[in-house]
Amino acid sequence: MDKQDNKDKLRVYEYAKSLNMSSKEIITILKRLGIGVNNHMSVMENDAVSSVEKFFHDIKSNAAVKRAATENAAKQAAATAASAAAAAAKAQAAAQQAANAPVAAPIAEQPKVSQPVAAAPRPAVSSATSSTSSSSQGGQLRSNSQSTPARPYTPGQGSTSRPSQPYNNNRPAGASSGQGQSRPSTGSSSSARPSGSSTGGYNSSSSQRPASSGQRPTSSSGQGQRPQGQSAGTGTTGAVNTNRNQGTDNSRRTFDPSTNRSSGQSSAPPQRFNETRATKPTVAPPSINEDLDSNGVAKKAKPPTKRFDDNRGGTNKGGQNRSNSRYGKGRNQAPVVYKEKVDNTPKKIIVRGEMTVGELSKSLHKDVSEVIKKLLHLGVMANINQELDLETIQLLATDFGVEVEMKIPVDEDNFELILETDEDGDLSERPPVVTIMGHVDHGKTTLLDAIRQTSVTEGEAGGITQHIGAYQTEVHGKKITFLDTPGHEAFTTMRARGAKVTDITILVVAADDGVMPQTVEAINHAKAANVPILIAINKIDKPGANIDRIKQELTEYALVPEEWGGDTVYVEVSAKQRLGLEHLLEMILLVAEVQELKANPNKRARGTVIEAQLDKGKGPVVHVLIQNGTLRVGDSFVAGVCFGRVRAMVNDKGKKIKEAGPSTPVEITGLNEVPQAGDPFLCYEDERKARNIAERRAITLRQSEIGANTRVTLDDLYKQIKEGEMKDLYVIIKGDVQGSVEALKGSLEKIEVEGARVKIIHMGAGAITESDIILASASNAIIIGFNVRPDAAVQATADQEKVDIRLHRVIYSVIEEIEAAMKGLLDPIFKEVVIGHAEVRSTFKVTKVGTIAGCMVTQGKITRSAEVRLIRGGIVVFEGKIDSLKRYKDDAKEVAQGYECGITLERFNDFKDGDIIEAFVMETVER
Ligand SMILES: Nc1nc2c(ncn2[C@@H]2O[C@H](COP(=O)(O)OP(=O)(O)OP(=O)(O)O)[C@@H](O)[C@H]2O)c(=O)[nH]1
């Protein structure tokens, strides 16, 4: 029973099918009418059907009114078209008549908008096919067409008159001229045409051929001879039908194929074709009917039209017939569906990035072909999947008269790269952030402690309770933030991670010691980071203190004291005796004042992670220096690839606080994981967003770690110069003696290729250290080791940081290599691969053999065939070949890590305990 019910129910798709429309269209109409449907399977109640039909009817009525208004213009157009086409006098007359006839009005109109929907709710081509199928599909349809007259058409239904009108209407000027031409050949029909171009002609032809007449108004004579099925086909589609006719009718045709063709091409078929084609985007045949009604002419044309419609109806796929019968009279009339051609081009589109042609067409509500055509006009060959840049999108949209609003989303994941600008009025002064650097034992820690103690004694009772990697002190009501990490780590590692936290560097130089290698290194670090340097000459209490000597030495590094005409501030202090500290703090404020350090406290907090650790009780704890905005308890944030919500916040004095402004160091809890020092920190409106961003950052980080090395290496230097990514090649030179380092510097600085120059950012005598690697990493520099080598730990750091170290023993080869790299000529065939290290533990002198080094292989392996170099204190003492490699008394091919062995070298006997023998092989490198 239920099944039966279901069967009888009319579903949207069925109804749409019966109208030759898509379910989507019906759903849209239903929705517009306020009738809720879910999808194409939804059942349509009777009142829904009648509402839709009323909707169509209303559309028709409106269209008719419009059409009547344009009648005059249409007449004119029709006349022109007819006259142009009519070579023969008859045709001309016919055309004129047609023009005079009220029905002709739609002719002019047709190309513009309305199309016979009911007649052909489906696209022209499909209607053509459907008619084809009607003839071929068989009996059912054909019989339909034959029996058309008898069909239960509702009088007054647009469909009746449709056939005639569509022809006339749809016929563009050219087509109408075609009619004229074809007419003469068809003879009697031509006369029928003019008189209402639809009515008479149709009638006459219909009288001859009931079924086909409606469809083939033009070639009436031909039609007359033609079998029904064929005529139906010909009527519907010009060329296609012609073919079909040829195929089907040849045997029985009595008409001249040429006539047929001509009729197909120029008269009725073209119209049809046009009509149908036009029908695709829009359909409005009912309006035509309406026209006819209003003109009073259509009524005459009704009978043939009916038939025509009927045929059409029949054409509407087999199922429709069934559905028609099932859904009754009203629905049989339903095929009269009209779609008005509505220009739904949007006024404005929002563009959020590049789009494909297909995407743009969709947002412009245009056919892809239209957009492609426009692109062709712009000289761009494109397909539907072609990506269009923003400029082209803008151009195309403007061409279609559509405004474009660009809303390019900001890459929120890389928030450290987003520059937030503030209005001057929103900015307020912020405390400077100071770092202390200097040579070992020059008193950095003592100075930091002394300053901190000063502030503690001045302010807080209870002493230092917290160590959070930074602290604030106050001088004359103004705060100064010190990064509490003596040494280079904070400075360099953070800079290597892209974080700039320091505003001022205090360079501590012991008055009794002078400028030392690490002093120079610190200077280079600060200069590379473009941070102003303030010199604190420490230990002035010491008897050997020579302040002038220090100043003198430092002028060599362009740090000229103010009193000597320079701009570097020098302060004499004794960290131990707490002398000059106040003056130092005042000078810091002075330097800060010149820098005009400002931030906007009224925005979301942004900062840098100074330290982070996993606390047994609190979980991940992070020390953050807030650099802009204000951080509040409860704020959600991202720190590196971690995220969280501020659960608790403590300041440098260990006091719980609710909010922290710019330049304030705080400890916060509430993270999911432990971030790294130097990680950027930014607040977000909610935790979910923070989590998403952190997760995406983690993925990107992993990918970049796996991905290409972005550091500069000599191997890809030329490429980078070419691509404009590099102007200067930053180099760190480390050599065994100061003399050769100086010589190398001079030679390298003279090289200039492709507009790129060598810029020495640091140099010194001594082994390559971890600090060199970090500086190289932070500055994207390469390291040249001249007669010096990195030890295993340093090499490991270099590998991790992807710093290119080039080791040489001859100055000329350094110059040659750098020059070749800059010219893109570098073509190393071999690359040295270190395979192991052995440490000399004892030596034995054996006559005739020389000195045997009793070694322990500390890393990798030593092979007999490997080349070796002897390193003493980071300096290469000898480079050559192994003479013999023995395990006890036996020769060995190789000795692995953790085993002892005896090694003799060719032409070298001067082993000393603690020497390192480094074994390496040369491997070919593919470029
Ligand atoms: N006489 C005197 N001694 C000082 C002064 N400042 C520091 N010292 C001493 O110098 C030594 C080294 O001081 P630190 O503060 O550890 O030096 P540092 O630069 O931090 O050393 P590293 O952490 O190893 O780089 C200590 O014994 C201090 O007591 C000073 O102003 N006068």
From TrEMBL:
The keyword DNA-binding does not apply. GO terms for molecular function: GTP binding; GTPase activity; translation initiation factor activity. Residues 429-598 form the Tr-type G domain. GO terms for cellular component: cytosol. It comes from the Bacteria. InterPro entries: EF-G-like_DII, IF2_II, IF2_N, P-loop_NTPase, Small_GTP-bd, T_Tr_GTP-bd_dom, TF_IF2_bacterial-like, TIF_IF2. Residues 114-147, 176-238 have a biased composition (Low complexity). GTP binds at residues 438-445, 484-488, 538-541. Its main location: cytoplasm. Residues 432-580 are annotated as: G-domain. It is found in: Cytoplasm. Keywords: Cytoplasm, GTP-binding, Initiation factor, Nucleotide-binding, Protein biosynthesis. SUPFAM superfamilies: Initiation factor IF2/eIF5b, domain 3 (SSF52156), P-loop containing nucleoside triphosphate hydrolases (SSF52540), Translation proteins (SSF50447). Residues 156-171, 239-249, 256-269 have a biased composition (Polar residues). Residues 114-335 are annotated as: Disordered. NCBIfam families: IF-2, small_GTP. One of the essential components for the initiation of protein synthesis. Protects formylmethionyl-tRNA from spontaneous hydrolysis and promotes its binding to the 30S ribosomal subunits. Also involved in the hydrolysis of GTP during the formation of the 70S ribosomal complex. Belongs to the TRAFAC class translation factor GTPase superfamily. Classic translation factor GTPase family. IF-2 subfamily. This is Translation initiation factor IF-2. It comes from Paenibacillus psychroresistens.
